[in-house]
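Hello, quick one for you while I still have it in my head. No rush at all, and the record is pasted right below.
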Amino acid sequence: MFIVGCDYHPGFQQIACVETDTGALSGTALGHPEQAEQFYRELHQRNVSARVGMDSRGHSRRFERLLHELGYELWIGDPAEIQTRRVRKQKTDRQDAQLLLRLLLENRFPRIWIPDAENRDLRQRLWHRHRRVQMRTRVMNQLHVVPLNEGCGARRRCGGRPVARNWSRSHWLRGPADGGRTCSTYPTN
């Protein structure tokens, strides 16, 4: 099994890894996303299982999908907790990757819960629906105020008929050309 400490950036990764069977320790910089993908796919072709640990900073959805597709275990840690466990003040990407690896090996990695892809998609759809309902409410409130601004109150008569509490959008949007009635106070040509 490979245990990988990964200091992830969208453009590159600095990794420190150890193979638990042999104890071989290695570290490298993966210069671009394609190189990182090639590295993990080569591990997969050798039928090696892996656990990858990284902190939760950055935009890593593509990387998370890749590891999920390959069947690797991804542990995402709390960056504040990881920072408190750093001994030296000097900070480099290589040292960050080594720190993540050390925490993984010592079972002190501050793992946090991250929703899986299905849960994340469901949350995104719910958020989108919530925003659409908010937009609809804003539009309905604006349409409700239009006749009130034209002097057609809720208890007055507008255009020969009483105005309902729930003002009909189609009544207001239709003009005299298509048979609709307009408010008598609203100027028409």
Q: What stands out?
A: The radius of gyration is 30 Å. The longest strand covers residues 2-8. The helical segments are 33-45, 61-70, 79-84, 93-105, 117-149, 169-173.
